[in-house]
Amino acid sequence: MLLAVLSGFLLAVLTPFLHRLSGxxxxxxxxxxxxxxxxxxxxxxxxxxxxxxxxxxxxWLPGLDITLNFLVDGLSxxxxxxxxxxxxxxxxxxxxxxxxxxxxxxxxxxxxxxMASMLGLVLSDNLLTLFxxxxxxxxxxxxxxxxxxxxxxxxxxxxxxxxxxTAGGLALMAGLILLAVMTGSYSLSGILASTDxxxxxxxxxxxxxxILLGAMTKSAQVPFHFWxxxxxxxxxxxxxxxxxxxxxxxxxxxxxxxxxALGDGALWSTVLMLFGAATMVTxxxxxxxxxxxxxxxxxxxVMSLGTLTMLIGxxxxxxxxxxxxxxxxxxxxxxxxxxxxGIIDHGTGxxxxxxxxxxxxxxxxxxLFAGLAALSMAGFPPLFGFIAKxxxxxxxxxxxxxxxxxxxxxxxxxMLVVGLAGLVAIKPFFGAPxxxxxxxxxxxxxxxxxxxxxxxxALGFGLVPFLPEAAILQAAMTRVAGSPVDxxxxxxxxxxxxxxxxAASFAVGIVLYRLWPKLQPNLFAMNSAGARVGPETGYFxxxxxxxxxxxxxxxxxxxGVLGHYLLVLVAVTFGLAGFTLFARHDVHLALDLGGSRFYxxxxxxxxxxxxxxxxxxxxxxxSVASLGVLGFAVALIFILFSAPDLGITQLLVETxxxxxxxxxxxxxxxxxxxxxxxxxxxxxxxxxxxxVVVTLMILAGLETRYFESIxxxxxxxxxxxxxxxxxxxxxxxxxxxxxxxxxIFVLALAAVGIHSMLKLKAEDQHKP
Amino acid sequence: MKSNTxxxxxxxxxxxxxxxxxxxxxxxxxxxxxxxxxxxxxxAASAFVIHAFAFGQxxxxxxxxxxxxxxxxxxxxxxxxxxIPALLAGDPMLTAHWWEIPLPGDDYxxxxxxxxxxxxxYLAVLGxxxxxxxxxxxxxx
Lengths: 768, 141
What we know:
By secondary structure, chain A is mainly alpha-helical. Chain A is 75% helix and 2% strand.
C-alpha cells in the first residue's frame, strides 16, 4: 500500500528520463502506473465489501504521533478507484492533447505527483498525513492551473486557487488538531470507532467551522466557488482530472469521511444543507449563463459539488446512498465531458458554444460519447446518472428537515442541468455546421479512449447497478453513514414522485435549451451586474487590503534607517522581557561583592570605560578600537573564570570583528551627527533599559534554578562517552553536534549573503 | 588594500605559515585540550587576513589557490559526511563512531566521525571568514 501511494512520486522523478526514451508514447507508458494501481485497488475490494475497514500500518514519525497508516474501506477505495481509473485515461489523453508541447515532461511530473497526493489524501488514516497530502494537492493544482505560465490570466487564476484553498487548508489544520484534541487520537479509524458524542464537547462548534472552511474552500462551495471556473485556465486534461473528477472532491471526501463522527450535531447538517443547496443553485445558474464550454462544465461541477454537500447534510440512509451514486456518476460523466470539451477545442480551435455546431459529421465518435455522457448528466435512463438523480430526489422528498425547499431547489437545478447537457452534447454536434477557426477533425485514439471508457462505464453502471453496488458502493455508503446501509440500486423503481419530477425537469430543461441563445446574453449581463457585490470582488478587495497593510507596516517598521531597526528590536525585546520579569518575579538585589578581587574591579572599570568611550567618541576608528577593548576585557573575564576555550574564541572573534569593521569603515563618509538631542536621549534611555533588564535577568537567573544544571552530566560523561576531555569541544562536536551542524549552515548562508551583496554592489558600480 | 611597511611584509611571511600550522594543531588537540575546529578555523582565517593585509587580497587568493567558497562547501560536505557512519549503523543522526587505526610502533591513530565533523567546522569557519574579508577587501579596490 505504501508503495501504491508513493509510486506516483517515484514515477514523477523518473518521468524526464522516460520522456526521452518513449517520446510521443509517453502518455501511454505513464498510464500503466494508474492502470496497475486500479487493478490493485480493485483486488482489495473483497476485503472491505462487507462494510468493514482495514488499517495498513507504516510508522513515519513515531515521536510526533504521525504515521503513514492507510485506512482501506469502501469510501477510500471508491475514491482510490476513481482517481486511478480516471487518472489512467487522463494521462493517455494528455499525451495526445499536449503532443509536442515543450513542457510535456514537466506536465506529467506534476500530474503524477498530484495523483499520488490525491491517493494519499483519500487513503490516509492519520489526520496530519491527510493534511500534508491535502496541501500537496493544493500545490500541484496551483502548478497545473498556472501551467501556461506565460499567460498572466493563468498565473492570476493559479494564485487565486492557491490562496483560497490554502487559506481553507490552514483552517482545516486547526480543525483537525481540535478534532484530535477532542478525541485524543490522530487516527481516523480511531475517531470513527469512538462512540463519544462529539457534539456535546465544548470545542465542537469551532472544530466543525474550521474543518468545514477547509472542505468548502477545496470543494468550491458558495461563497468560495469563484476559484473553480477560473481554474479552467489549466490545460483541459487538468480540468478533467483535478477540477471535476478528483481534487475538488477532496472536501466532499473529508465531509463524507467525518460524517459518522460529526454528523450527529444540528450545526453540521444545517450548514451543509444550506451551503450545499446554495452552491447547487448558484452553480447551475452560472453554468447556464456562460458561453465557454469549459466554463459551463466548471459551473455545473460546482452545482454537483453543492448537491453532494447537501446530501451529506440531509444525512438519511437514502441521502447517503444517493450521495455515493452521484459522486461516482458525476466523476464518470464529467471526466468524459471535459475530455470531449478538450477534443472540441483541439479540433476546432474554439471553446465558445455560440461558434460551434454541426460537428457530428466531422467527429462522429466524439459526438456519440458526448451524447452518452450528457444523457448521464441529464439523468436519462438507462444511464447511471438517472439512478443517482432518482435517488437524490427520493431522499430529498423524504428528508426530515426542509424537505420541500430542498426538493424545489434541486428540481430547479436539475432543469438547468438538462439544459446544460443539451448545450454540451447537442449544440456543438447537431444543427447546421458553423465555420470554426480550424477545420474540424476527429480526435486521435488516445484522446477518444477516455470519453469512450467513462461514458460506456456510465451506461454499464446504469444497466447493471447491482454489480458496482455489491462490489464497493454499498460498503462506501455504510462507511459514510456509520451504520450498515441496505441499499437497493435499480433502474426501474416504478412510477413514483421522483420519476414525475424527473420527467418535469426534462421537459422544462429541453425548453430552456431551446431558449438558451436568447436567454444567455440577458443572464450574463445580470450576472455581471451582480458580480460587483459577489464573493470574487470580496476576494480582490481582501487581497488589496493585505498589500496595503503590508505596505503600511513596511513603511513604519522597515524605513531603511538601521538605528531605527535597532531601537525597535531592543525596545520591544527588553520591554517585554523586563515586563515579564517584574510581573512574574520578585526582583530584589542580593548582590554579594565581598569576594571580588581588585583586578576584577579593574576589568569591570575597563569594560565600563570602553563602552562609554565607544559611544561618546567622534572618531569611528576610535569607537571600533574601544569596542575591541571591551571584547578583550570580556575574554579576560572568561579566562579568569577558567573557560579557556571561550576566552580564546572571544579573543579571535574580537580581533576579526575589528578587522572587518575597519575594512567596512574605510569606505564610510566622515562622521556626522544626524540625530537630534532628543533622539539621542531616547536611544540612551532604551539602551539603559536593555542593560538594566539584562543585569536583573542574570541576577534573577542566578538565584532561581528550576532544573538541575546539566554541566555535571557533561563533565562526568565527556571522557567515558565521547572520548574527549575538553568538555566545550565535546559538546560542540558530539553532544550537541546537530546544533553545530545547523550553525555552520547558518554561517554558510551568511557568507553567501554577504558575498552576493558585495558582488551585486560591485556590478552596480561597473555599470555606467 | 596593501601595506608598504617592510616590518609587516617580513613578519607576515613568517607568521602566516606558523599560524596555519598552529590552527591545525588547535584543531587536532581540541578534543582533549582547549582548541577545536571553530577556534582552529578562526586562527587559520586570521592567518590569511594578515597575509592579505600585507600583500593584498589578490596575492592571498593566489596563496589559497582555491576560491574560499570551496573551503566552505567542502566543510559543509564533510560535516554532512560525518553523519553517514551513524546512518549506516542505524543510530540516531550524528552519533559518534570511533575507529582506532594502528600505527607503526605501539601507537594508534584515533580516527572518528567526530574528527571529520570537526574538520568540517574548521573549513566552514575558515571559508566563511575568508569570503567576507576577501570580498570586503575586493570591494575596497
